[in-house]
C-alpha cells in the first residue's frame, strides 16, 4: 500500500474543503465580519496547508493503478480527516462547542445525519451556520466523489474510488462509465439544490435561509438555521418544496437523471421507487388518521400535513421537523422508527438500509419458501426484470445482519450510560441510518446536548459506519487486511 | 513541483509558516485577551471612582445644607450649589461612560428628587434674624423631607456600585470564553504542524533516505559481488537521475571490459 498516494488524494479532498471554508468566511464577511470570520479564516489556512503539503512531494502518476486497499484508505481517511478538519471552525469559535460537541457536530454534518448538540442554533453567526450546511452538502454526495471532479488526471483510478464510495447495489443500476457517473451525480445534485433554493426564496425565505436549507434538503441531512427547524416558518409552501426536494434526493440519482433526460429507464418504471412511494403514502395516511383519532391535531388535513412532512423527512433520513413527534401516537412512532431504519433508495444521498435491500431480502425469503415447496425448481430473484446474482443476495443479507448488530451494539452502549430504552434504541437507529432526530430525550424538537460524552462519541462512530455502509469502515479495523 | 531542493524548501517552508502563524495568532489572541481584561478592570476602577465622586458631592452638599438649615450659616449656599452641580455632572459623566446606562435610572431619579427638594428649600428667603420657630421648621424639613431624599440618593449610589459590579460578571464570563478562544487556534495549529512534520518525515524517508540506502546497497552488491545493479523503489527528481547515471556508468564499464 502506497501511503504517499493516499496522502495525495486526501490532500486534494482537503483543498476542496478549504474552498468551502473560504466561502463560509466570505458569508461571514458579507454579514458585517461576524464572529465566525476569523475562526473560518484560520481553519481555511490550516486546511489549505494540510491539502497542499502532500501535493508538494507526491507527483501524479497517470499510469499507476490504484489498489482496492488504497481506495478504501483514501475514502475512509478522507472522511475521517474531513470530520477532524470540520471541527476547527467550531472549536475556534467556542460557544457551546466543547471538543466532543465540535466532533459530534462535524461528524453529523459530513455524514449528512443532521443531529445537533446545539441548544441555541440561532445564536450562531451566519458564517458558521453556512459552514454547517456546507458540511451537509459536501457529505451528502460524498467527499471523495466531489474531489474527483476536480481531478481531471485521475483517469482509471476513478473506478476504484467510486466502488468504495457507493453501495454496490447503487452501482449496478447506473450502467454508466465512472467518469460519466460522477458527472450525472453532480449535475443532478447541483440542479436539485439550485431549484430548491430558488423555490424556497419564492416561498418567502431569505436568500441565506433558502440557500442553507436547500443544501441541507438536497443532501438529505437536515441541519436548519432555526431552533424550531422548519416549524419556525410555519409555511405549507416551504414544507411542500422541501418534501419534493427530499423525495427527489432520496431516489437513485441515475434514475432522476434518466427521467429528466427522457430515457426509458426512469423513476416511473422502477419497482424500488414505486414501492418506496407507496410505503411513504401509506405511512403518511396511517399516521394522519391515527393522529386525528388521538386528537393530536384539530383536522385531518393538518394531521396529514404534519405526518407527510415527518414521514418524508424521516424516511429520506433528512430529519427536518415541523412537529414534536414525541407527542405522537405509538403507531406513528413505530412507523417512523421503521422508516428511519429502512431509509430510501440506493444511489441517493440517504442513509439507512435502503428499500432496494429490503425488497431483495423480502424476495429472497419468498424464494426460500418456494424452494422448500419445490426443491428441484430454479427460483430466480428479479428486481426491475433484472435477475439478481446469488452473491448480491448474500451480500445484502450479511449487510442487514451487520446493520442490526450495529444497532444492538449502539443500544447496549446507550443503556450502559443510563439512557432509557426509547432514547437509546431510537438514537442508535437514527445515528446508524444518518437520520438525526429520534424519540425520547433526542426527539424532533430536542437535541443531543444532554447525552453523556461517551454516548455522543459512540453515536458519531455509528454515523460513520452508517455513512460508509459498514464494510467501508470495518476494513480499517481488521489488522489482517493491512498485511 | 520538481527538484529535491525545491520540495525540501517548500516542505520546511510550510512548517515555518505554520509555526509563525501559530505565533502570530497566539500574540493577537493574547493581546485581545489582555485588552479585554484591561477594559474590565478599567471599567471596574472607573465605576468606583465615579461612585466615590457622587458620594463626595452628596456628602459635601449634605454638610453645607446642615450648616444652612440648622445653624443658619448662609455662606455655605455656594458650596451647596457647587456640590449639587458636581453631583449632576458626575452623573452625566457616568451615563456617557458606563456599559449599561439603564442601571443609572434610579440614581438619576434620586438625584433629581434631592435637587428639587434642595432647590425648593433654597428658594425660600431666610431672614437674617431667625426665630426659634423658623429654626424648628428648618430642622423639621431637614429630618422629614431632606434626610429621606438624601438617604435615597445614598442608597441609589450604593445600588449603582453593586449593579455595576454585577454587570462585570458576564463580561468576565466572556473573558473566560476569550481565553478558550485564544488557546484553541494555537493548539489546533500545533496539531496540524505535528501532522505535517510526521508527513514530512515519511516523505523524506520515502523519497530521500530509502532510495539512497537502496542505491548504496545495490551499488555495494555490484562492486563487491558483481550482482546486477537493479535498484527497486520510488526514485524521483535528482535521485532518479543519479540512478540513471549509475546505470549508464555500469553499462559503459561493462562495454569497456568487454572490449
Short description:
The complex is a heterodimer of chains A (483) and B (259). By secondary structure, chain A is mainly alpha-helical.
Average pLDDT over all residues of chain A: 85
Tally of individual domains of chain B: 2
**Gap from first CA to last CA of chain A:** 9 Å
Summarize the largest interface: chains and residue counts: A-B, 24 and 28 residues
Rg of chain B (CA only) = 42 Å
Describe the structure in your own words.
The complex is a heterodimer of chains A (483) and B (259). By secondary structure, chain A is mainly α. Chain A has two domains: 1-165, no CATH class; 168-392, no CATH class. Helices cover 66% and strands 1% of the residues of chain A. In chain A, strands 1-2 form a two-stranded antiparallel ribbon. In chain A, helix 6 crosses helix 9 (178-202). Chain A is globular and about 65 Å long. The N and C termini of chain A lie close together (9 Å). Chain B is an all-alpha fold and 259 residues long. Chain B has two domains: 15-190, Four Helix Bundle (Hemerythrin (Met), subunit A) (Up-down Bundle), CATH 1.20.120.1730; 193-258, no CATH class. Chain B starts with a helix and ends with a helix. Chains A and B meet through helix 1, helix 2 and helix 3 of A and helix 1 and helix 4 of B.
Compile the SSE list and pairings.
The complex is a heterodimer of chains A (483) and B (259).
Chain A: H1 3-30, H2 37-57, H3 68-93, H4 99-110, H5 126-141, H6 143-149, H7 157-165, H8 168-174, H9 178-202, H10 207-218, H11 236-249, H12 253-260, H13 271-293, H14 300-315, H15 330-342, H16 355-373, E1 382-383, E2 386-387, H17 390-416, H18 421-432, H19 453-467, H20 471-474, H21 479-482
Antiparallel strand pairs in A: 1-2
Chain B: H1 4-69, H2 77-97, H3 105-123, H4 132-225, H5 237-258
Helix pairs in contact in B: 1-2, 1-4, 2-3, 3-4
